[in-house]
Amino acid sequence: MSDIPQLTLNDGYRLPQLGIGVWQIDESTTPGVVSAAVELGVRLIDGAFIYGNEASMGEGIRQTPIPREDLFVTSKVWNASQGHAAAHNAIEDSLNRIGLEYLDLLLIHWPCPARDQYVETWRALIEARNAGKVRSIGVSNFNPDHLDRLIAETGVTPAVNQIEINPRFQNADLRAANDARGIITQAWTPLGDGRSFDAPVISAAAKRTGKSPIQVILRWHLQLGHSVIPRSTKRTHLASNLDILDFRLSDTEMAALTALNADDRCGPDPIAFEAD
Ligand SMILES: NC(=O)c1ccc[n+]([C@@H]2O[C@H](COP(=O)([O-])OP(=O)(O)OC[C@H]3O[C@@H](n4cnc5c(N)ncnc54)[C@H](OP(=O)(O)O)[C@@H]3O)[C@@H](O)[C@H]2O)c1
Which residue's CA lies nearest to atom 16 of ligand 1? Predict the structure, then answer.
């Protein structure tokens, strides 16, 4: 779907606003999901070492006839690979597993502040970018103080901060902090474990627009201006998640969805998450 909007990153590269994530998709299912999504028009595929399916993500990419340069492939350095040398090894291993010469975007998956290694990990990402192994570099789950430390100590601002955003956990302050630093926000768990699918304001917007509650939520993400990477293993769902470009939520509907925020996370708090 060539009409998926693109966002311009602070390094000049362009990021499709809508893509897919492949967390919790098993290795045997991943190639078919990736190739079906690309066939339907998806160009942005969000993976990570810890998802355990980098090789099969690469297999799915190779099954598509789309030229490599038209795809946008993301991976992430896991917590156990933080540190300068370990991160360099992790980047090589991810490239080898996926079977690509370069990644479009590489993120530090979590800051793990207690480890206190994210600055040296960031230096490895900068070097990998300078060596042409990665086009854009960014972070995930970083708070403003983590962002500011990276920028102060290396002079390099992340291109992307991928964070939890869904109707019950809207993360507005962190979105604003990203904006203020010229960092593009990308939303993970954008559907919020289904916890707002039955909200009357979402049902009403779905009824008015002739769309599903999930399509309304994904449209809300697009209209907030960030990138979004919903996951699905089903072709009908993948197609319907793409079919959100032909309608608009009104200002009133956007405000009503904003009012659903309950600061209620699905995932861990980045301050405390240190899992290996
Ligand atoms: N950086 C991080 O720390 C972090 C953390 C979490 C996630 N992520 C990324 O964000 C991506 C998305 O988040 P997520 O995987 O947690 O969850 P999500 O995209 O919010 O939701 C996925 C769930 O929604 C269902 N679904 C999707 N489209 C649907 C549709 N049209 N109709 C009905 N059900 C639908 C899927 O089931 P079906 O398969 O049945 O469609 C699946 O159960 C991940 O895959 C990953 O790439 C990153």
Answer: 189
- Domain with 170, as residue range(s), is 6-194+226-231
- Using pLDDT thresholds of 50, 70 and 90, give the confidence band for residue 123: very high
Ligand 1 within 6 A of CB of 141: yes
In a domain, 103, yes or no: yes
Is residue 143 in a domain? yes
Cβ(233) to ligand 1 under 6 A?
yes
Domain count, the chain: 1
The pLDDT tens digits for 179-225 are 999 999 999 999 999 999 999 999 999 999 999 999 999 999 999 99
Tell me if 50 is assigned to some domain. yes
Give yes or no for residue 197 CB within 6 A of ligand 1.
Answer: no
Residue 14 CA to ligand 1 centre (angstroms): 23
**CA 55 to each of CA 77, 88, 184: distance values in angstroms, whole numbers, following the listed order:** 15, 18, 27
Assess if residue 243 is contained within a domain.
no
Query: Does residue 23 line the site of ligand 1, with CB under 6 A?
Result: yes
Q: How far is the CA of 32 from the centre of ligand 1 (A)?
A: 16
Q: Which CATH number belongs to the domain containing residue 136 in this structure?
A: 3.20.20.100
User: Mean per-residue pLDDT for 30-57?
Assistant: 98
What is the pLDDT confidence band of residue 2, given thresholds at 50, 70 and 90? low
Atom of ligand 1 nearest to the CA of 162: 1
Report pTM: 0.98
